[in-house]
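A student in our group prepared the protein record below, which I am reviewing. Here is the record exactly as it was handed to me.
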Amino acid sequence: MGMKKPRRHRKKKGIVGIEAAIVLIAFVIVAAALAFVVLNMGMFTTQKSKEVISRGLEESTSALQVAGTITAEVESGAPYVDAIAIPIQVAPGREAIDLSTNVTTIFLQTPKNTYTNTHEGVWALYYDSGKDDYYLVWIEGVLSVSNITQAISWPYSLANTTLTIDGRNYTAIDLKTSTPPSLSLLFNKTKSVVLDLLNFNSTKVTKQLTNSISFIIFTQWNKGSTILKFGDKALVLVLLGNNDLLTYYQQFTVELRPPVGAPLTITRSLPASLTPGTLISLS
C-alpha cells in the first residue's frame, strides 16, 4: 500500500483591520445622513410651527395702541360732545402700518347709529421754519359725505393755500401759529373745512354735518406718506354729525381696523357733567 499524501489545509482569510474600518465608516456615514435628515425635518417643522404661531399672534393682537389721553370737545352752546381725538402709535415689536383710506377703516358706533367706515382722509402737520408757521397738510382721501351729491377730491375750499415741500405741491391749511397747534385749533380748522365743502353747491344753502366722519392726522411731517412707523404718532379725529352728538353718560365705540393685526377698539362713556366750550379727558 502506498503512503497517503498529506492533505493540504486551505487558507481561510479573515477580515483584516482596514476592511473592518471601511465597513464601520460606511455604517457611520449612513447613520449620520439619516440622522441629518431626521434632524433637518424636525428643525423645518419647528420653524414652520414658529411661523404659524407668530402669524397667529400678529393676527390676534393689534398693531396699534392708544398713545396718550383720549379727548372730547363739548360744543360751545350746549352740553353735547361733537368731536373726539384719539392719539395712536404702532405697538412695540410691530411693523409699520398704512393708514390710508383704501386699506385702513374706522368703525364708529354711537347710541343712534353705526358706521362701518368713517375714514375720509389723512393729514400731517408741517412746520415751515422759514415762515415760522404750522400747516395742516392734506395727504390723501376723498370726501364722500352723504350731504354732497357727488364725491369731491378735496379739500376743495383750500385751493388758495398751496405749500411746496421738497419740490412737491400740497394743499394745506395755514394754522397761523408758530407753536404746535392745540386740539381745539385742529378741531375748529377741520370742522370749518368740512362745512365749507357742505356749502359747495349752486344755491349756497348752509348745510350741517349730518353723518359722522373721521380723519387721521400725523402729528409731525412724514414726507407725504400715509405709513405710520414705530415711534411716529398720529391723531384719529372723529367729527360727530348732528345725528350722533353725545351727551351725559352716553357711550361710543371707535374701532381702527388696519390691514394687518387685530382691530384697536376704544369704548368710552361720557361723564355726568359736560361744560360747554371745553375739552374733557376720557382716558
